[in-house]
Fold this sequence. Notes:
By secondary structure, this protein is α/β, with parallel strands linked by helices. Helices cover 55% and strands 10% of the residues. The protein has helices at residues 10-18, 37-46, 54-64, 66-73, 90-97, 101-127, 145-149, 161-172, 176-184, 189-194, 206-221, and strands spanning 26-31, 51-53, 133-136, 153-158, 198-201. α1 crosses α6, α3 (54-64) packs across α6 (101-127) and α8 (161-172) crosses α9 (176-184). The chain is globular, with a radius of gyration of 18 Å. The two termini are 27 Å apart.
Amino acid sequence: xxxxxxKLDSSSIESSSLKPISLHYGVVLTGGIACGKSSVGxxxxxxxxxxxxxxxxxxxxxxxCAGELIDTFGEGIASLDPNDxxxxxxxxxxxxxxxxxxxxxxxxxxxxxxxHAQIIAKACELEARKRWYFxxxxxxxxxxxxxxxxxxxxxCVSAKEELQxxxxxxxxxxxxxxxxxxxxxxxxLEQKIAQSDIVIxxxxxxxxxxxKVDSMLHxxxx
Length: 222
């Protein structure tokens, strides 16, 4: 979407985390890992909607914080490619944090305030257009939920766990145990569903998913 994800100084990060906000036109898109949030986002883009993608912002933040992260988690998370000095090897970092709750919490304490600040900055730009836009935030509930993001509507994309695991193993080249660790590192999907306003089940075909997205858009319009 051509988002500019510039660096923010510590004061702007702190103030954005503390200042109450209200996003009247923002709809959160969340759900379990490998449930199909990205697929829903792509469908929404074809319908003309803007998407703020927390994962894309997070990738940029990892590079902004690379030095601090390498100091914290060790040289083993640095890219082995000599052309990518100072770049984080996300798979190596994932192997560390998805198997250790304390280290995952430490990573989140470094990155989440910066990610949140950039999400809110982009959302405030889109609010001026006074039309629906979507915030794709996988860890929405884990990172503060409605109170932190100031949204009214939350859409949860769900899928059966066996599908989540199969997609993760194929997409990320993970073993079954590695995929299970990543699923279990998140809030249980049932809890996310219970706290959401709209649920999109993604257990079928792409055509079926498109139909469910269109149904969700109809609900928003009425």
